[in-house]
């Protein structure tokens, strides 16, 4: 509330100053630094910074993920899902409730272009064989259960793929486990064919925990840009890539 009040007060002061200046001599608001600063996309997305960090790098809360550098198509799909209610998290649903597709696309492109540094990952606290189970699923999958390797879609560096597949590096284990569970139960869905739902239903609880532990232990590559579209053939059809 204090932040909102301060912002409103600042806007009022700028408006008053601009009005006074206009009375003295006509001016183009685009040439006034204060107007440019207040109207920038960086200023408009300050509501995102509390949870996702000033540059979208994520915060110490396990459930507020890094969004910087993820493909714009993926970010747009998530913002639209929150707005339309197909993905449920009350603060996000409320924040984007009245935003147009065009504005959500601008927000998505803003965060997709950012490349803040990654923090050092926290060391895994699970047994070595459990961590190896996660590594195997990420790198090789499990053909006997029709589980493709994560790298087949999320990229060899796990940095995602344009336009709609997110990077997995830099996410905390608890967040990864929570999202896989939501995919498995159908609480989280994507455009059909919903490849993540289909894959997650084949994962046991232990698989999810092993995947989360291994992915959360990985350091980010030097170049953490997402791969270009269809840099390799995906093993399953995925509606998010259309």
Automatic annotation (TrEMBL):
GO cellular component term of the entry, any: periplasmic space
Keyword S-adenosyl-L-methionine assigned: no
Cytochrome c domain segment(s): 129-219
Post-translational modification as stated in the protein's UniProt record: Binds 2 heme c groups covalently per subunit.
Region entry Disordered, spans: 219-242
Binding site for heme c 1: 48, 51-52, 92
Pfam families, alphabetized: Cytochrom_C
Binding site for heme c 2: 150, 153-154, 196
Any GO MF annotation of the entry: heme binding
Signal peptide region: 1-23
InterPro entries, A to Z: Cyt_c-like_dom (IPR009056), Cyt_c-like_dom_sf (IPR036909), Cytochrome_c4-like (IPR024167), Cytochrome_c_Oxidase_Subunit (IPR050597)
Keywords linked to the UniProt accession: Heme, Iron, Metal-binding, Signal
Protein name: C-type cytochrome
């Amino acid at each position: 509330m204090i932040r909102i009040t301060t912002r409103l007060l600042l806007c009022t002061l700028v408006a008053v100053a601009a009005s006074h200046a206009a009375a003295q001599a006509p001016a183009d608001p685009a040439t006034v630094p204060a107007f440019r600063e207040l109207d920038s996309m960086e200023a408009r997305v300050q509501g995102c910074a509390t949870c996702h960090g000033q540059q979208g790098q994520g915060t110490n809360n396990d459930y507020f993920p890094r969004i910087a550098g993820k493909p714009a198509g993926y970010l747009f799909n998530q913002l639209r899902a929150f707005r339309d209610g197909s993905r449920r998290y009350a603060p996000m649903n409320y924040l984007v409730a009245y935003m147009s597709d065009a504005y959500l696309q601008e927000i998505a492109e803003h965060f997709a272009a950012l490349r803040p540094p990654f923090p050092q990952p926290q060391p895994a606290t699970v047994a070595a064989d459990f961590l190896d189970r996660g590594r195997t699923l990420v790198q090789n999958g499990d053909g006997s259960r029709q589980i493709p390797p994560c790298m087949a879609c999320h990229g060899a560096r796990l940095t995602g793929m344009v336009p709609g597949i997110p990077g997995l590096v830099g996410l905390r284990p608890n967040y990864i486990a929570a999202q896989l569970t939501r995919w498995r139960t159908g609480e989280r869905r994507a455009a059909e064919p919903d490849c993540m739902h289909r894959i997650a239903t084949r994962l046991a609880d232990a698989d999810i925990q092993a995947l989360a532990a291994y992915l959360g232990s990985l350091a980010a590559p030097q170049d953490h840009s997402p791969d270009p579209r269809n840099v390799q053939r995906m093993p399953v059809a995925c509606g998010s890539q259309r």
